[in-house]
Amino acid sequence: MTMDAAGLSTQRPGIALAICTGAALVEGFDNQSMGVAGPRVIAEFGLSAAQAGVIFSAATIGLFLGAATGGRLADLWGRKRTLGMSLLIFGICSLATALSGGPKSLFVARLITGIGLGGAMPNFISLSSESAHPERRISAVTLVMAGMPFGGAIAACVALGARLGWSWHSIFYAGGVAPIVLAAVLFYALPDPPRARAAGLPGMERLDKVSTVLFGGDRAMTTLLLWTAFFFTQLILLLMLNWLPSLVRDLGFTREQASMTSICFNLAGSLGAGLLGQLHAGKKRRRWVALTYAGMALALAGLASVGSSFVLAALACALAGMFIVGAQLVLFALAPLYYPTPIRGTGVGAAVALGRLGSVVGPLFAGGLLAGGGGSASVLLAIVPFVAVGGAAAFALTWRKPCDYDASIPRNPGEFHEH
Q1: What are phi and psi of 2, to 5 degrees?
Q2: pTM for the full predicted model
Q3: What is the CATH number of domain 14-191+212-416?
Q4: What is the pLDDT of residues 116-175, one digit of tens each?
Q5: How many CA atoms within 13 Å lie on the side-chain side of 87?
Q6: Which ranges of 46-168 does DSSP label H, i.e. alpha helix?
Q7: Domain boundaries, the chain
Q8: Cα(first)–Cα(last) distance of the chain, in Å?
């Protein structure tokens, strides 16, 4: 049993972390599902590049709406209840995606799926942070969130079932059943936690209006930096998750090779996230933030110039996955540290929502470039300036001090950040 900053016990931390990891996994599966199913969905419904971009962005529009409200509802109703309902919503709507009969129904199903996904994320981020040992919060949350790219790799593996005669619908059947089962496990196995919104706790704030939560005290600059880093990093990540198979095919590779590069992207992201989480949790965070975003830019530029070598393409995708996914997972782990327990859901939810807004822009940006006659190389190179902006915000964030919501977090900024 661990203790959060308010002195409230978090019961069964192992179960809570396992459920959070499962939630991250099924969310990662769904994030990747439309990307790996995309070529077959486009062919079946005869979608143009612009139409595909809108449908690919439907879930991320919902993710923005869900994240904006899910964290706030968690502070009001509790993390367990909000997370369970969110899992049920996106599980049911994923099944509806498989049953869609045309572009309109597909768009609606993906939109509502996104609302459930968005509501789940700030809850399992906050819950995993509160369940971990105080000294291991960054590395523990990073490892939990590594379930997302691993789930994406599973989606890519399911997509390879097309060689066995599986249709694209099977991806969404699998992605629908899993979160429904997980929600049942959550309600059965995880005890109702004490209300995070306990009144009168020393050093903790009551649940004020959203503007005060986000910008009150000295949180304004921290919130803006988090939002900028989340926006541009998620823009890049979701663009790659949704369009990577199509971009790789446009570079001259086969559908099977495109699916393999998606697996490389996600597995490298999942496995590399653990290492990056440990590095970013240490005293040299500022250095590793700079190296992570620099590596991201180099990997994208490298993928744009691999020529006909599939080995180089797979290697570039693996490196891009490690740095892009790793950067996003580290941001997920950092966000809870900057908001006290009673308002953590609201703060994390707002950061995730801004990231999801970037997720909407990313696929639309790629779809617009491709519809205008651009090729895969031009799309990949056009992402690099976004890497620079997101990296600059994340780099500046290393000078910001976390809130003192736990005694284990140093009060001296020099103890937390490198000099």
Answers
A1: -110, 170
A2: 0.75
A3: 1.20.1250.20
A4: 988 998 889 888 888 877 667 777 788 788 788 788 778 877 777 666 667 788 889 988
A5: 27
A6: 49-77, 79-98, 103-131, 137-145, 147-159
A7: 14-191+212-416
A8: 34
